[in-house]
């Protein structure tokens, strides 16, 4: 059976490893040793895959510019699943990235039918307050899609490079799909490329931390980034078996091609519509030259966006988290006492009787309480390993373990909700008017 990923479908993705084969997502494991002070989602393999994240690591490790961008659809309560993405954005900001957060109100309006007023209220009172409370700094950028002319202009231009067949193949659009839904997909591509516009510092590696269900946006946007660039670079083989690079364009003025010929590292020859470059040792030098000329002649110049993919949290009762079932998730705005009750009622990996649990041990891998500690509540890896071990060997019983997790959850929510109130006072620092 072929895995179909559609960001608007409710189906969960059970077999992550198939994404590597079916969609060309690369495993994240190999990159971990390259990352200085990895966050807990990286350390604990919650982030399992990526596209081109090596470019972002290179920028992080060498103090070169890079960005992080993600969006939130203002359609419900902000919960622990959103916190994971917010934590990832904030971590990249701390690592030196320029951080962008788009509130996807156009998507909420076109796909969910939520009014503009409700989009704004939910965007601020749920998502933006928690984002700031978790540590997002004012140097970053928070905006509503519908209020950004830059996003609209870019989305319109991206639309010239996208066609219905391609969008349908990626998103499963049908004849019933409303046109604004399609436009909102282009707005999200514009969000993703926005950090690389010249107003935002020009081309640079940009990572989009997402769940695997959002991969269609990433694939579409990577393709569009290539199509928008003034030049494309092809690696070609000569008759003698040596390689050369052909820098090609259908739209570039002849002066731009001449400039590529002048500046390109290696021996360059100018032809109608392309420049061929021989004996280039350093592809990155050539790429740098091409980007410089693209910007000089007013063209677009985008590095195809990178992405990281994280596992989803399961629902507290097992199965999926669902916004229509408040007992399946913990919202960051939940009354702290109600979170205690939710944790105490949640599905564990414990055995039917205490005796059995002492003899066989629990199964933390099948326990939603352990999952909350793994994703959010226990920062110290040794502490988490101790809980895992004591559960598995039958020393720790679920009652005590749940009480511990519930206490941590309550402490977190009390503090977070206080920080949210402080954040309300600071909205103006982020250019947000209530
Ligand atoms: Fe889950 Fe804790 Fe019970 Fe183990 S002891 S199954 S981690 S609740």
TrEMBL record:
Record-linked Gene3D superfamilies: HUPs (3.40.50.620), Tyrosyl-Transfer RNA Synthetase (1.10.240.10)
Residue ranges of the motif 'HIGH' region: 74-82
MF terms in GO: ATP binding; tryptophan-tRNA ligase activity
Compartments (UniProt record): Cytoplasm
One of the protein's GO biological processes: tryptophanyl-tRNA aminoacylation
Predominant place of localization: cytoplasm
Reactions accelerated catalytically: tRNA(Trp) + L-tryptophan + ATP = L-tryptophyl-tRNA(Trp) + AMP + diphosphate + H(+)
EC number: 6.1.1.2
One GO CC annotation: cytoplasm
Reported function: Catalyzes the attachment of tryptophan to tRNA(Trp).
Protein name: Tryptophan--tRNA ligase
Classification lineage: Archaea, Methanobacteriati, Methanobacteriota, Stenosarchaea group, Methanomicrobia
